[in-house]
Amino acid sequence: MQGTLKESVFDKEIPFEYKEGLIFVKARIEGETYNFILDTGADVTVLDAAVAKRITYKKVLKSKVEGSLKKELSTQLVTLPALNLGGVEYIDTGAIITDLSYFKKFFGCFPIQGIIGINLLRKGNLQIDYKNKVLRLTNDFSNLKVSNKAHIVKMNSKKNGSILLDVALGNKRTKFIFDTGSNGKLTTDSKLLETNKHLTFVSKKGTANISINGASDVTLYKALVPELAVAGIALQNQIITLKPGAASLVGNRFFENYTLSIHWEKDELILDPVISMDNEILEAYELTIRPDYTINKILVHSAWGDFSDKHNIPLGAEVTEINGKKVSNFTQSELCEFWNQEMSGIKSSSVMRLNIRCNGDNRQFTLPKKKLLPNNKQNNSLK
Fold first, then answer.
1. What is this structure's pTM?
2. Does 68 score more than 50 pLDDT?
3. How far apart are CA 189 and CA 252, in angstroms?
4. Helix, strand or coil, per DSSP, at residue 111
5. Is 132 helix (H, G, I), strand (E, B) or coil?
6. In 258-360, at which residue ranges do the beta strands (DSSP E only) sit?
7. 309 in helix, strand or coil?
C-alpha cells in the first residue's frame, strides 16, 4: 500500500496552511491541484469520492465499514497511479476512496479533498516546521537542520500502521497515537478522570468527534494535569482533552511547539523545541460559536459547564449579531471573509456580545472571557 517513488533523490520544501490546528497541503493528481490534510494518524491515504470521479485509478477492494460513530461507511481501496506532493511524485500509492463532503460543514472556505496518510509519508524523511509553515521532504536526512537541543524519540514504527508514543498522565502510562490529523494537544478517554480524582477539570457540552463519517454531541472535559511526560519530555501543568470512548492521541497543539522531523532509516522522531510549554491556563467565553457552511449561518456550537442549560440556550441556535455586526444573511464568501479576517480579532477581546435567536426570540448576551482552569475547585465526579 506504500507504493514507490518516481525519483530516489529529492529535497523539497512545501508551504502549508495551518488552519484550525490542522496542516493543509496541496497535492496534484493528473494535473489538477487538491487540498489534503497531512495526517500521520491515518494508516492509509484518503481521497474524496467527488475527486475520484475525475481521475483514473486501479480498484483493489470495495467494502462497507463501521466508523467511530457506528455509521456504515462505503469505502473503496484503490491504488493511485501518481500523486505529486510539492514536486515529489508517488507511484501506485494505496488509498481509500470515500465521501468527505461532511467536512464542508466545518471547512467550507477550504474544502478537504483528501488526506495524506502515513503510508505515503513513509517513503521519505520529513520535517514539519510549524513556525514557518513549511513541510520538507528529502531522501537524505542530513539535508534537514536539527539543533543540539532536540529530543530524539525511538518510534518502533514497524513497516506500517500508526506510530505510538509513550505518555504518562498522572498514575496512568499508556500509548498515544502520533497524530497530525488531530487538532488537539493530548486527547484520551474520559475514564482517566475516574482513576485520577485529584485532577481539576471543567466540562463542555457540544459537538465533538468530527470525522469523515459525521459528528456526535457529547460532553467533553478539559483537565489540568500537574505532571506528565510525552515521549520522555517532562511537562508540568498542562491541559488535556478527555472524551467518552476517545482514542489516545498526541496532536498538532502539542507538536506546534517544536520543529518535528522523522528519520525513517534510524526509526527516530526528533522534536526540536521552538516554544516553551509553560504552565497552561484555560480562558474562554462560556459559549463557543462557529460557522456551518452548509447553511451559511453561525451557530452556538458548545457551552462550558451548565451555561446553556442555565440560560436556556439550545445548542445549534443561530447567532444573528456579533459585537453589533449583523451576521445572519451572509453568502458563503462573506461568511468565509468574516470568519477568517474579523473573527480572530473578536476572539482576542475580553468580552464578546452576541444576539442569539432562541425559540423564535432574539436574546442578547454579554460574554466576558473567564479563567476556567486552573480553578480552586477539586472535582470528584463526572456529570
1. 0.93
2. no
3. 18
4. coil
5. coil
6. 258-263, 268-273, 282-284, 287-292, 297-304, 318-322, 325-326, 351-358
7. helix
